[in-house]
Amino acid sequence: MAEKLLDIQSVSKVFRIGGMLMGKKLVAIDDVSLSIDDGKPIILSVVGESGCGKSTLCKMILRMYQPDGGDIKLLGKSYADKKGYDEKQFLLDVQPIFQNPYESFSPRKQVDSYLFNTALRLGICKNNDEAEKLVDETLHSVGMSLAVVRGKYPTQFSGGELQRVSIARALITRPKLIIADEPVAAIDASMKMNIINLFKDLKDQYNVSFIYITHDLSTAYYVSDYIATLYRGSLIEYGPAKQIMDSPAHPYTELLMNAVPRVGDKWDEEMVMPDMEDKEYAITYCKFAPRCPYATDECRQRRPDMVTLSEDRKVLCVHSLVQPER
């Protein structure tokens, strides 16, 4: 059995909305399990509408949130093992890329200082000469160079250029995993595919896996090896990108496929289904049942089991639109 780079095991995250006495609980992530094998890099897209739990899951992987249930393991080491946690090694192995590159850099600091600081602070390079070589090499891999970046401030770059620098900064550590949370959402449409193509190239060049958090199904289809669909904090479908996009197994994924037919389109707060209510997160049976055209009494009586459709495909639905392989 292949060693797991990342192993998310029945993870849950609960937030309290309002006061301690009169407030209510919101289950933002509900019993989610996912894994990425070590050795062969992949791009896994986590998709779903606003509020489905994508960013919460991302922040738990980055150790920004602590799970309230379940466990996350990186290369076999549990996040719950606080004594064995090596912060420096974690930063070498896992790096983030956030949505708005202008929020990742201080307007009062030169951009190249972040790259040099990463290389030197984490002990990747012993001195400035080594750091300069590494920084320039990494910038070239994203279509930039130290000659272009040196001495400049964030406002002297376009959004697409600055996001390339963000990607270079993440690559400085030669990580095993990059978490990209809506990395093209704040970039002009003309530049989006350049960044997406860059992920595909870097995956193989640096032997790094990506978790790509996105609203944009068209880019997810183009860039992904696998897709995980979230709904109300639950993982409802997982599998190879082409299979899921061409033949969705869950009615919600089918709805998303029909709603986003064109490159660059996305669903957001204006495209979500009507009458969304917080209480739906607390449903103990199928969370999509109140809106599902295929729902039966069975769907409204119990939470569905995860159905294995094939070796690398699964769906949380008792009436899957795709039948399991025999």
Report what the structure shows:
Strands 6-7-8-3-9-10-12-11 form an 8-stranded mixed sheet, sandwiched between helices. Strands 2-1-4-5 form a 4-stranded antiparallel sheet, with helices on one face. It is globular. The protein has 11 helices and 12 strands. The protein is α/β, with parallel strands linked by helices. The longest helix has 17 residues, at 189-205.
Helix percent reads 25-40%
- What is the strand content? 15-25%
Radius of gyration: 21 Å
SSE succession: EEEHEEHEHHHHHEHEHEEHHEE
Low-confidence spans: 261-276
Count of helices?
Answer: 11
Quickly give the structural class: alpha/beta
Write down the overall geometry: globular
How many strands appear in the DSSP assignment?
A: 12
| Average pLDDT metric | 88
Strand order across the largest sheet:
6-7-8-3-9-10-12-11
- Describe the sheet with the most strands: 8 strands, mixed
Distance between the termini: 22 Å
List the helices and strands and how they pair.
Layout: E1 4-17, E2 24-37, E3 43-47, H1 54-61, E4 69-74, E5 77-78, H2 87-93, E6 94-97, H3 101-104, H4 111-121, H5 128-141, H6 146-149, H7 159-171, E7 177-181, H8 189-205, E8 209-214, H9 217-223, E9 226-231, E10 234-240, H10 241-246, H11 251-259, E11 306-310, E12 313-316
Parallel strand pairs: 3-8, 3-9, 6-7, 7-8
Antiparallel strand pairs: 1-2, 1-4, 4-5, 9-10, 10-12, 11-12
